[in-house]
Design brief:
Radius of gyration: 23 Å
Structural class: mainly alpha
Helix content: 55-70%
Largest sheet: none
Shape: globular
Strand content: under 5%
Length: 494
């Protein structure tokens, strides 16, 4: 059995820093005392730590154990601030609210799922190729040697991984190695379990904007029950690959941009910059999502579906500046690493002669992706449900933030489709190794779009009534029948 003590120390430091950032960046005016414990805290903490550890590498290409110690000290100070606030009543800690909103049997199912994940993390180490050779190997070099300018990164005869992959996940893993006192992969999977649980918590909170609380909680539980989220096969949530962390950071960043649209302030702008910057530092696709969010906003404004006045733009200036600085810092790190000749560049293949050879690829990619929608061993039947929900008739006009969600998802789907077509690799190799992972980046946003569509069409009102009635019959003491169904009223036509 794996000793989880190092992972516990690591998670406490990340969560403490994230709790402080959550209280600072996500507190609404007049909210007292703020609730600190939810998935946002872990994601903000992981984003901040993963990006902060880039700084010494950007300065001189080296990182020492003093940097890891500084993170642990920051986590300890954060917990002192949290405990002091708890004792004085200024802040309060509690379990994520969506867990309390689950029916009794669903809470038992969640306990079984999370318990199984914890046991899996304690009994097994990462075994996937990408997890070991792309991410954990970098983390070992950073922990043991502390340099990206030595032979381990730049000598092609030593490199067994792509040295130019983003560094946020290896830096987080090296922080855990420091907490554990060794680089033996002790408890490494707890990082990925935490990302999955945080993603489900954020999804539940966003669903709660237009759904009944019980339905929002059940949606988060069903999300966790998807095989790819909490399984250990290659590319899945507990495999040690970066796709679930990237999906969590992308989704949270997109949600913060939509929060800025509805409540313009520097707080959601800075939070979005932190999360999207961390997504770009976790996987290269994160940079595409930043561009996709900007393009979606531009299209929505051009179509007059979103209005952004000058004061709203000014509230985003701090976030935009922070995002540019974070991307520049990550770029400075990669300028110190020589790209490996073993890996082909997408941009290097984009010439007229190569593009003329790709005429037969679009039907192949379309067919493969269409089949992926029905791979129940990975997704259950979520994708047919998503597309089926889009056929439901909505009531009223789409709110601006929903326009933003849909345009972002559609634009990124088109971008990924082009990437799969122009890949310099063999098309079937690219499809088999990346389609499932790329679809995982969309998964939480697709579930949210489906939930909003069903709520706006009135379908979930009947499900809510049925769920409330059955819950009341099972346990009258819960008083579930007294809850109001929190489905948004239909929007008025302009």
């Amino acid at each position: 059995m794996i000793d989880p003590s190092g992972a516990i120390v690591f998670l406490l430091a990340i969560s403490g820093i994230g709790l402080v950032l959550n209280a600072w960046l996500r507190a609404e005016s007049g909210e007292a005392p703020p609730v600190l414990a939810d998935g946002w805290s872990f994601l903000l903490g992981a984003a901040a730590v993963g990006l902060a550890l880039h700084l010494p590498l950007a300065i001189d290409g080296r990182i020492t154990h003093a940097s890891f110690m500084a993170v642990a000290l920051a986590g300890a100070l954060a917990w002192c601030w949290i405990i002091a606030g708890q004792l004085t009543g200024r802040r309060r800690l509690q379990l994520p609210a969506w867990i309390a909103d689950l029916p009794r049997l669903a809470r038992l199912a969640l306990l079984i799922v999370v318990g199984s994940g914890v046991v899996h993390c304690m009994l097994s180490k990462i075994a996937g190729y990408d997890a070991r050779t792309i991410y954990a190997l970098k983390a070992r070099v950073l922990y043991n040697i502390g340099s990206i300018e030595g032979e381990d990164f730049n000598d092609p005869t030593r490199v067994h991984f792509n040295p130019t992959y983003p560094m946020a996940l290896p830096l987080l893993e090296s922080q855990l190695y420091w907490s554990a006192g060794s680089y033996g992969d002790q408890g490494l999977k707890f990082i990925f379990l935490s990302f999955s649980l945080a993603l489900a918590s954020v999804l539940a909170s966003q669903n709660g904007r237009f759904e009944n609380k019980s339905i929002s909680a059940l949606t988060a539980l069903l999300f966790l029950l998807t095989p790819i989220v909490l399984s250990g096969f290659e590319g899945a949530g507990l495999s040690g690959s970066a796709d679930v962390p990237a999906a969590a950071l992308i989704f949270a960043g997109v949600m913060e941009v939509s929060r800025w649209l509805t409540r313009p302030s520097w707080r959601p702008a800075v939070s979005a910059a932190l999360l999207l910057g961390a997504a770009a530092a976790t996987k290269a696709e994160g940079t595409l999502w930043i561009v996709g969010c900007g393009a979606a906003l531009a299209i929505a404004v051009g179509l007059r579906r979103v209005r952004i006045e000058r004061p709203k733009w000014r509230s985003a200036e701090l976030g935009i500046g922070l995002l540019v600085a974070l991307l520049a810092m990550c770029g400075a790190v990669h300028l110190r690493i020589h790209p490996s000749g073993y890996y082909l560049s997408y941009l290097a293949t984009l010439d007229a002669r190569w593009l003329r050879l790709l005429a037969g690829r679009p039907p192949i990619v379309l067919w493969y992706v269409a089949c992926e929608f029905f791979r129940v061993q990975f997704w259950n039947l979520i994708w047919p449900c998503v597309f089926g929900s889009l056929l439901l008739l909505k009531r009223g006009r789409l709110p601006p933030h929903v326009w933003f969600w849909r345009l972002t998802a559609a634009g990124m789907a088109g971008t990924y489709f082009v990437v799969l077509i122009v890949t310099p690799l063999h098309v079937y190799y690219q499809l088999m190794t990346s389609v499932t992972r790329l679809m995982l980046h969309f998964y939480p946003l697709a579930v949210l779009i489906m939930s909003e569509q069903m709520a706006a069409s009135g379908w979930t009102k009947h499900v809510s009534a049925l769920l409330t009635t059955r819950s009341t019959e099972e346990d009258a003491s819960l008083n579930v029948g007294d809850r109001n169904v929190a489905v948004l009223p239909p929007a008025k036509a302009a």
